[in-house]
């Protein structure tokens, strides 16, 4: 798949996730539309999972694909609010991302929704 095609398909998929995040959080930012695997570009996956990560500005709830590439995120908030958004996403039918790390922008970040 050519890069442009991957971007277009990925944007459609990520936009759907962005709208779901907006519905539960009142704000949502589109993050990644493509992922690079073995030097080739692919659109982000259709699958949706949710997790919470810590960013430089606070905590954010995210929607990721099966490989942990973020498609949408909430704004940076306090940890308790990010967990609340995460729980609302779970209640809406989006399962928890069970892996320990996600990919956001060019960074890998640990998931923290299960930290006590």
Description:
The chain is an alpha+beta fold and 116 residues long. It has one domain. It has 2 helices and 8 strands. The protein has a 4-stranded antiparallel sheet with strand order 1-6-5-4. Strands 2-3 form a two-stranded antiparallel sheet. Strands 7-8 form a two-stranded antiparallel sheet. The chain is globular. The model has no long low-confidence stretch (mean pLDDT 95).
Helical region count? 2
Q: Average pLDDT, to the nearest integer?
A: 95
The ordered H/E elements are: HEEEEEEHEE
Which structural class do the helices and strands define? alpha+beta
Radius of gyration: 13 Å
- The rounded distance between the terminal residues' Cα atoms is 42 Å
Spans of at least 5 consecutive residues whose pLDDT stays below 50 are: none
Helix content: 25-40%
How many runs of DSSP E, i.e. beta strands? 8
- Strand arrangement within the widest β-sheet reads 1-6-5-4
**What characterizes the major β-sheet?**
4 strands, antiparallel
Taken together, the total number of domains comes to 1
Strand content: 25-35%
* Outline type: globular
Oligomer: single chain
């Amino acid at each position: 798949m050519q890069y442009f095609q991957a971007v277009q398909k990925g944007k459609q998929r990520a936009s759907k996730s962005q709208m779901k995040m907006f519905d539960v959080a009142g704000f949502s930012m589109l993050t990644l539309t493509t992922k690079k695997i073995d030097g080739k570009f692919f659109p982000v996956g259709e699958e949706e999972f949710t997790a919470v990560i810590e960013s430089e500005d606070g905590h954010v709830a995210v929607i990721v694909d099966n490989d942990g590439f973020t498609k949408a995120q909430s704004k940076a908030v306090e940890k308790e609010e990010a967990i609340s958004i995460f729980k609302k996403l779970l209640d809406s039918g989006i399962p928890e991302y069970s892996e320990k790390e996600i990919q956001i922008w060019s960074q890998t970040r640990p998931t923290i929704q299960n930290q006590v």
